[in-house]
């Protein structure tokens, strides 16, 4: 019989009993520890401090730590297995999950519905009373696939190169079943008429069990983006007659989360042009009105999520989330009011705006202080490379917007609203997005909309799904890189406005 040991997690004070040899990543992902590089030992995002005891530690693990500039008592959770009782300090214990409680218009229907948003990192599901639109219950969790990588590219790599597709499908369906099961218990014996699911294209394919190989190499196009229908029985749910639909995607890297965003913003009925921007690893952009809709993904790079930034991290405890200048001094706000451990995307945008104002960065993005580091606190700083990463990310979004607006034949002044979706968009300073040239629209036109994927999915519970067909008919997915002026536009948008 296998030996068992205890892991104690600080500062949570949790004690977990596990079998000898259990990989730490199987345990820690559900406590908010992330595995951004998918366990390759390259990013250090999964680092944990060993306070007492030890985990498995071999030469390759030591090597990986050294390359990351880490030493005792740090260990990489992705390289560690349980070999005895151990106490670990984890800093990444709070994952922010954005649900939705916005009011919306609906035509009452009989019964219940469930809206499910499957994100790369987080999952949210809401049980809705279709008679009065009330949110009766909410379930949130982290995506169990996250142990195989923090972004969609690592999931594709794991699915295609390491034959992990079936495992990723199993993990997400199992979690979907558990969360839905909890909501079903609150329906008072009346199963929901319908469960609608939205997610990016990789989540769609993994949930539906489709092959991700076409998305692993050029031209990154998938032919299996349609709505995917299941019976409750097929997903092992105790809910006869409930129809489960994973909504169709708009393109290889523009998923049904963005389709739902179009519904949430009312873009498809608006006479004046409207813009939707989802700022994340894959910044997705949509420009459209009731006549036609254009969408694109920008490969904005992971800077907004804190990855590829020397001291970058996600918006969790210890992250600098905003930076201001007061009497010539840099001031920071840290999530959880703790000592700053790093900086997240919203803090990065602010920091760049502040350093531009101080003259420590010029409009070309060059650090002018003669120092390698721009300090925000005694421990947290930005490097020249970080500034470049931010320039690449903001230029990708700004260039994408410029190209889609040119293609639509509209000028900025004609745009009625710019909606920003996603958790990251909730925290950014609109003034600073203008200052760094990310979104060049008057502040009064910009609306932070939160989780548009969940809101739009919820709104679709009240509609005939022919609404979706009509949106798909008027929507075109553009490849930005195929625009002959893309390189020039991209270079121009790298500049910070003076
Ligand atoms: S070092 Fe990247 S996930 Fe462990």
In short:
Helix content is 28%, strand content 24%. It is built from 13 helices and 22 strands.
With strands numbered from the N-terminus, the spatial order across the biggest sheet is: 8-7-6-9-11-10
DSSP helical segment count: 13
User: What structural class is derived from the secondary structure elements?
Assistant: alpha/beta
Task: Please state roughly what percent of the residues sit in beta strands, choosing from under 5%, 5-15%, 15-25%, 25-35%, 35-45% or over 45%.
Answer: 15-25%
The main β sheet shows up as: 6 strands, mixed
Estimate percent helicity. Answer: 25-40%
Attached small molecules: FE2/S2 (inorganic) cluster
Low-confidence sequence ranges? none
Q: What is the alpha-carbon Rg in Å?
A: 23 Å
Number of strands: 22
The quaternary structure here is single chain
Mean pLDDT: 90
N→C terminal distance = 68 Å
């Amino acid at each position: 019989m296998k030996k068992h040991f205890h892991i104690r997690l600080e500062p949570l004070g949790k004690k977990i009993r596990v079998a000898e040899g259990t990989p730490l990543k199987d345990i820690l992902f559900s406590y908010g520890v992330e595995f951004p590089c998918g366990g390759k030992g390259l990013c250090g995002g999964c680092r944990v401090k060993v306070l007492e005891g030890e985990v498995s530690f071999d030469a390759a693990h030591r090597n990986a730590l050294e390359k990351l500039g880490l030493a005792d008592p740090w260990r990489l959770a992705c390289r560690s297995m349980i070999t005895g009782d151990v106490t670990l300090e984890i800093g990444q214990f709070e994952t922010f999950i954005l649900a939705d409680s916005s009011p919306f218009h609906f035509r009452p229907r009989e019964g219940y519905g469930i809206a499910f948003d499957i994100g790369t990192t987080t999952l949210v599901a809401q049980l809705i009373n279709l008679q009065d639109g009330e949110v009766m219950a909410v379930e949130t969790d982290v995506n169990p696939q996250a142990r195989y990588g923090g972004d969609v590219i690592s999931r594709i790599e794991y699915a295609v190169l390491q034959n992990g597709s079936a495992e990723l499908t199993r993990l997400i369906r199992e979690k979907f079943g558990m969360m839905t099961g909890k909501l079903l218990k609150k329906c008072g014996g009346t199963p929901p008429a319908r469960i609608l699911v939205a997610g990016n294209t990789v989540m769609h394919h993994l949930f539906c069990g489709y092959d991700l190989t076409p998305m692993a190499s050029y031209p990154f196009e998938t032919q299996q983006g349609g709505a995917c229908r299941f019976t409750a029985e097929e997903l092992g749910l105790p809910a006869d007659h409930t129809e489960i639909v994973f909504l169709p995607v708009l393109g290889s890297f523009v998923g049904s989360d963005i389709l739902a965003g179009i519904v949430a913003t009312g873009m498809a009925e608006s006479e004046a042009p409207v813009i939707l921007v989802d700022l994340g690893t894959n910044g997705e952009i949509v420009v459209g009105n009731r006549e036609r809709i254009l969408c694109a993904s920008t490969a904005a790079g992971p800077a907004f999520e804190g990855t590829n930034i020397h001291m970058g991290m996600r918006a969790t405890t210890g992250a600098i989330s905003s930076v201001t200048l007061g009497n010539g001094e840099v001031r920071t706000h840290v999530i959880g009011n703790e000592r700053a451990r790093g900086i997240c995307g919203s803090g990065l945008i602010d920091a760049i705006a502040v350093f531009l104002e101080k003259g420590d960065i010029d409009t070309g993005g060059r650090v002018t202080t003669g120092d390698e580091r721009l300090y925000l606190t005694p421990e947290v700083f930005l490097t020249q490379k970080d500034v470049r990463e931010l320039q690449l990310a903001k230029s990708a979004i700004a260039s994408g917007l410029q190209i889609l607006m040119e293609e639509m034949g509209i000028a900025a002044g004609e745009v009625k609203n710019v909606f920003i979706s996603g958790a990251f968009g909730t925290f950014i300073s609109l003034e600073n997005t203008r200052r760094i040239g990310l979104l060049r629209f008057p502040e009064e036109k910009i609306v932070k909309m939160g989780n548009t994927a969940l809101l739009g999915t919820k709104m679709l519970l009240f509609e005939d799904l022919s609404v979706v067909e009509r949106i798909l008919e008027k929507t075109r997915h553009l490849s930005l890189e195929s625009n002959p002026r893309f390189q020039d536009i991209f270079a121009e948008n790298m500049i910070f406005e003076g």
